[in-house]
Amino acid sequence: MLERIHLAIVREVDRQGSLTAAANVLCLSQSALSHTVKKLEHQLGIDIWLREGRSLKLTQAGEYLLGVANRVLPQLAYAEERMREYAKGERGTLRIGMECHPCYQWLLKVVSPYLANWPDVDVDVKQKFQFGGIAALFGYEIDLLVTPDPLYRPGLRFEAVFDYEQVLVVGRKHPLAVTSYVKPEQLADEILIAYPVAIDRLDIYNQFLMPAGIMPKRHKVIETTDIMLQMVASGRGVAALPRWLVEEYARKVEITPVRLGAKGISKQIFLGVREADLDIDYLSAFIGQARQPFSTTDKDTEQRS
Amino acid sequence: MLERIHLAIVREVDRQGSLTAAANVLCLSQSALSHTVKKLEHQLGIDIWLREGRSLKLTQAGEYLLGVANRVLPQLAYAEERMREYAKGERGTLRIGMECHPCYQWLLKVVSPYLANWPDVDVDVKQKFQFGGIAALFGYEIDLLVTPDPLYRPGLRFEAVFDYEQVLVVGRKHPLAVTSYVKPEQLADEILIAYPVAIDRLDIYNQFLMPAGIMPKRHKVIETTDIMLQMVASGRGVAALPRWLVEEYARKVEITPVRLGAKGISKQIFLGVREADLDIDYLSAFIGQARQPFSTTDKDTEQRS
DNA sequence: ATAATTGATTACTTTTTCTCATGGATTGCA
DNA sequence: TGCAATCCATGAGAAAAAGTAATCAATTAT
């Protein structure tokens, strides 16, 4: 039988590079590991490592086991963590995953009052998912998914918690800054600055430019909002961001929001959770808190649509 | 520590409804389960079941553990299944290394029927090796080497799987197109197009031009076969390729093969494997499949020598 | 009532796991 | 090149863990 210790050994030998070093980390003798490994290989009927000289190298089967270890061991570790919390009557860790950049800005505003109300709850924010946020939610990598794209699946529950308008940001001296709204054609000669994500996931493309068959003169990728907006302010290009975010930055940077199309692009942020988790009080409390327009000390922010 | 058996117990007690019944399914005595459960609850510091009369009811922590069990146990079971497949040689990744361009063309023909026969085997093709293909084979970077240059070493086994003739390719209107074979001197005024590899590894040089002390007017390097042959077709140069490959392309492109020298240059493709791997059946199956002239839907291809 | 079933407990046995000591092999360094 | 250090494998025995049998007390079904 494949036991936890076997996975731990595979992972640790890989991390440490040798059986001896792994043994120390695992608080076992080198001999114990050697015996255990031998026995496991015998039971499975296949080698996990190739013995090359005095070092070990994973076989294909070993590589696979390493993958299993890296997936399963964290689940067990988290389960134990959770059990400890149950035992102490404590609250747990709320692991929040995010799939969009504006989500992050929004989250920052929701998290701080939440942390004040739930001092015993830790919040972890993750942003990278190998197989997407939904998979991470199903795989118990995260407990809460913040996303603009809800995907209704059995076992999951999504709820819209925030409406906002996606607008074009231009420098204050930009010709478009004075127009009441912008048409797709008007972007044909612009440099469009965006976050590094697939183009078909950017609203300004799939809801605005693409339907009109227009492409900007150039597409430029920038990681951070601050730099992005400084580029916009200096007239190096335009970008698309949530209106509330733009208005907040507009105090510090020379930028102006402009509506995208006559009707504007309206967006929502959704929270996704596993149905089974809905009775975890600190989790449902987060959703409840997120549902209300966030209380803020920023007057500007209240102008959002 | 939370072990596999603990999760199995939680799941089985839930399924069977009682400790005693679960014990039977798990091939353990009721006493053993009772002990194990007691110990686990003590270690975790929290009850997993509420004892109500003579029956058990999951606590909140227990419910959570049950969820973990239902998620994690199947992963382990699947991993074991996979390991069994690895052990039986039914599954694996066949990492194929290649050292020549014609090898690649040939490989394409062998791989597709193989993949159909071995749906659980992945094929990886690598073409760059820091210390050469043989070293990659020894170093377990690859499992199979496709090469025109066998190198017999202890621990390795090479086998010729394919004979072909290396010919000159010229455009159909080229003066040489009508000759029955070409002499080295006749290439002295030609532009010779070749893949980007060291000149001394090109057969047309080391078996044909160099022995005669002749060099072409110019040596031109091109990456891809398609472009290379279009250049040849348009009269911009000549190239050296396997006859079967030329004949296949001759349907689409205006090119003709011409024998190199009166006797022609005959070549072989070899497969190299580690002797220790010969009993891996999906690997030996590949060699077996490669050994036979590839079955093809291309009639042209059967004309190869 | 009473017979049957369930989980808990104790004492004991068996199995598994771990360590120690040691050896052979490889590698790095003087 | 030769020596020291390091690595993994192995056998024997100690320590720990997990298992069983027998029995008890409590609950449930008839």
TrEMBL record, chains A, B:
The keyword Amino-acid biosynthesis applies. Keywords: Activator, Amino-acid biosynthesis, Cytoplasm, DNA-binding, Methionine biosynthesis, Repressor, Transcription, Transcription regulation. Residues 1-59 form the HTH lysR-type domain. Pfam families: HTH_1, LysR_substrate. One of its GO terms (molecular function) is DNA-binding transcription factor activity. One of its GO terms (cellular component) is cytoplasm. GO terms for biological process: methionine biosynthetic process. InterPro entries: LysR_HTH_N, LysR_subst-bd, MetR_PBP2, WH-like_DNA-bd_sf, WH_DNA-bd_sf. SUPFAM superfamilies: Periplasmic binding protein-like II, Winged helix' DNA-binding domain. Its main location: cytoplasm. It is found in: Cytoplasm. Belongs to the LysR transcriptional regulatory family. PANTHER family: HTH-TYPE TRANSCRIPTIONAL REGULATOR, HTH-TYPE TRANSCRIPTIONAL REGULATOR METR. This is HTH-type transcriptional regulator MetR. It comes from mine drainage metagenome. The gene is cynR_4.
